[in-house]
Amino acid sequence: MTRAVDSGIILIARLALSVLFLWSGVMKLLGYGAFVAYLQSKGVPFVQIAAPIATAVEVLGGLMLIVGFLIRPLGLVMAVYTIATAVLGHDFWNVADAALQHDMVIHFWKNVGIAGGFLLLCVTGAGGASIDAARAPRRPLL
């Protein structure tokens, strides 16, 4: 059973994570051609498959975070996705320019930290303010 304050904090965490991914996913949709070109420039394999999957993960994942739907499995999926984007998109070990490399290091470790937040959601669940909580079987009072 989750205390009300815990549910409120978990809700704030879900919303904070959702803003980043929902915004990023919508930007990918609005500039889809540029996003595909970026993935190609990074050498991402199967770009025609990877681009729509990445966009869907961010948009749908962001929406699922907001409403608190399937948060435990979503937390694991989003943690793996966030680490994959860190490795593929912020590969500081391949950057020669010192200023750009510094920026990439920051973004890489930021993604690792975000993945940690998703792993916590995987363990804690969505909290009381969620579809998951509304769908959970109720225990009898007696």
Automatic annotation (TrEMBL):
Compartment annotation: Cell membrane
Annotated TM spans: 12-39, 45-67, 74-93, 113-134
Keywords: Cell membrane, Membrane, Transmembrane, Transmembrane helix
Main subcellular location of this protein, as a coarse class: membrane
Domain of life: Bacteria
GO cellular component, one term: plasma membrane
Membrane topology designation: Multi-pass membrane protein
Stated family: Belongs to the DoxX family.
Identification of the protein by name: Quinol oxidase
Organism: Trinickia soli
Higher taxonomy: Bacteria, Pseudomonadati, Pseudomonadota, Betaproteobacteria, Burkholderiales
